[in-house]
Amino acid sequence: MKQISNSTPTIFDVARTAGVSRGTVDRVVYNRGRVSAKTKEKVRKAIEILGYTANPNASSLAKKKEYHFACLIPKYSKGDYWEEIYNGFIEGAASVTCGTITLDIHHYDQTDVESFISASKEILQGNPAGVIMNAVFKEAVIDFASELARKDIPYAFVDNKIDDLEYMLYYGVDPYKSGSFGAFLLTTRCDVREIALIRLIRDAKHKADPNAPRRHGFLDYIEENLPECIVHTVFINPDLPEDNLNILSKFFSEHPDVKHIAMTNSRVWLIDEYLEKNPDKGRIVVGFDDLKRNLESLRKGNIEYLITRHISLQSFKVMTQFAECVINGTLPARRNNYVHMDILHKMNMDDY
Predict the structure, then answer these.
(1) Nearest alpha carbon to residue 81 among 172, 212, 204
(2) 48, 131, 197, 227: which is deepest, by most CB within 10 A?
């Protein structure tokens, strides 16, 4: 039986009666989003009790509103990978036509999990329509995602992701496959007995490991296809170039037969000084991403291959599609959107 009332019930009344958020009611009413059968039934019962009638113009009015989105990415210097991601976000927000987008970019320090936690709390206080982030500190990202879900705020990933979470959208390479591909390129030309895998020291507590899936893909390929191959792990600090030169010199003096080198992050240029000072025609180096400093090393022949993608296109695509889905209350055609991988060599880099 419908409840008799002197005032017209609103979507907020339905939400309170059903014990759900306004956004959940909106998704049930307009059939535009993932809602469990149990929750749908609660909302429909509340609608019947209150006698709520949806405004037929609500959808078109919503598209004229201003929507606040937040992006959480690492701090960067000019020319870094994350500057390209930032540019894609800005261009994407400006191109959305189904609503006016205001965009807040929040940055955190990749060496300090507390800076991520602090930035995520700021975002939650702003109660955005949606959040886009990457996954560096796994535990902190999971906690943040849990809070977003509790507040019914949708979120998306760019560049990397955590598979077990209920994110709406992802844009980036398949990191595991890209790691396997890097191992294939490094070892396809000859019988490889030893490999140096150069890794970065990111934080004192070793909680930041964004390249773990790519590294696992690399190592699994080697284990499956070259089980006798020895993979040496060498850690360098991105903030201590002089120390790194000494670390690399020491390692390669102790392992003179190691001619195959890989870095699974975007900063293979960090070892360029060593490569430049210690040329070796038998050496093969594989890195990732077409950043300016990586390309300079590629052009000189210090790096053999760069596996890359159009970096800013990832953030442009995730921004535009995520905003449109949130505003329209729809789900994306594909949740995981893997961009294609390109191979750059000094012979084809000028045409990329």
Answers:
(1) 172
(2) 131
